[in-house]
């Protein structure tokens, strides 16, 4: 007499799967829920998060693309998750382009996508310059974290295998 496969029960079950970090099962359950309720963008956001947490970035971008034919009109929540997935699939240029065309991303989300795409390209000086510009100001806490990361990356000593080899020829271990 009870329908345990209705939307309400399925959402509770998906929530349980997410809490217990059973992402593969949660992905299946959320896809079934989205099939039943294709207009619910919150479910698509949860699905994208499952793909993120399960480190299935490529599959996540494909699945979200299949739900939205026009990338410029993806709602804010799924759009931010989609951009994270793009960044993590090494599609840095695609993520940056997506942040420019999507109309629903907030300015804070666009800033985060842009700075992360610069950092993933290892352009440390450009990142520092970008962050110093007035329109790119971010909240103080986030800004401090990025500054620390950039400073650490700039100060990192790089070792050259060629120089190591040349030094170890006359003096082994040098």
Distance between the termini: 78 Å
* Estimated share of beta-strand residues: under 5%
Overall 3D geometry? elongated
Order of helices and strands: HHHHHHHHHH
Radius of gyration in whole Å, from Cα?
Answer: 21 Å
Largest sheet: none
Structural category is mainly alpha
Any overview of this molecule?
With 174 residues, the protein is mainly α. The protein contains 10 helices and no strands. It has helices at 7-19, 23-36, 41-53, 57-67, 76-88, 92-101, 107-120, 124-132, 140-155, 161-168. It is elongated, with a radius of gyration of 21 Å.
Short summary:
With 174 residues, the protein is mainly alpha-helical. It has ten helices and no strands. It is elongated, with a radius of gyration of 21 Å.
Any chance you could write out the topology, listing elements then pairs?
Layout: H1 7-19, H2 23-36, H3 41-53, H4 57-67, H5 76-88, H6 92-101, H7 107-120, H8 124-132, H9 140-155, H10 161-168
Q: Any key phrases for this structure?
A:
174 residues, mainly alpha, 10 helices, 0% strand, elongated
